[in-house]
Design brief:
Strand content: over 45%
Shape: globular
Distance between the termini: 40 Å
Helix content: under 10%
Number of strands: 11
Radius of gyration: 14 Å
Largest sheet: 7 strands, mixed
Order of helices and strands: EEEEEEEEEEE
Structural class: mainly beta
Length: about 130
C-alpha cells in the first residue's frame, strides 16, 4: 500500500503561481508512476499531468501545457506540480495519484492509478 498526501493548494489571483506537493509513504520502494488529476465543481475528474518513475517521461493535458510542470524527487518520495499563469478555469480540487510501474507506459486515465490522495483545493480568482 502507498499513502499519498497533497499539500500546497490555496487561493491565488489569476496569473499567479502555486506549487503542489505529493508526499508518498508506505511501500515506496517499488517504482511507480505519479500523476495529477483535478476535479472542478460539477465536472468529472480530469487528467492534468503524469511522470514516470525515472522522470524521463512526462505527459500533460493540452490545457495546461506550457504552464504546468510535473516533477519528482524519489529520494524524498515526493512529487510536485508547479503551476504558473494560473487561470480561473484551473480552479479545482487537485488529486495526486500513483500506480506501480511495470513498463514504459504512463497512464492518463483514472483507471490507470491504484493509489489516490485526498486532494488539495486550488482556487484562482479573476
Amino acid at each position: 500500500q502507498v499513502q499519498l498526501e497533497e499539500s500546497g493548494g490555496g487561493l491565488v489571483q489569476a496569473g499567479g503561481s502555486l506549487r503542489l506537493a505529493c508526499a508518498a509513504s508506505g511501500r515506496t520502494f517499488s517504482p511507480y508512476v505519479t500523476a495529477w488529476f483535478r476535479q472542478a465543481p460539477g465536472k468529472e475528474r480530469e487528467f492534468v499531468a503524469a511522470i514516470s518513475w525515472s522522470g524521463g517521461n512526462t505527459y500533460y493535458a493540452d490545457n495546461v501545457k506550457g504552464r504546468f510542470t510535473i516533477s519528482r524527487d524519489n529520494a524524498k518520495n515526493t512529487g510536485y506540480l508547479q503551476m504558473i499563469s494560473l487561470k480561473p478555469e484551473d480552479t479545482a480540487v487537485y488529486y495526486c495519484a500513483a500506480s506501480p510501474q511495470y513498463s514504459d507506459y504512463v497512464g492518463r486515465n483514472l483507471y490507470d492509478y491504484t493509489y489516490w490522495g485526498q486532494g488539495t483545493q486550488v482556487t484562482v480568482s479573476s
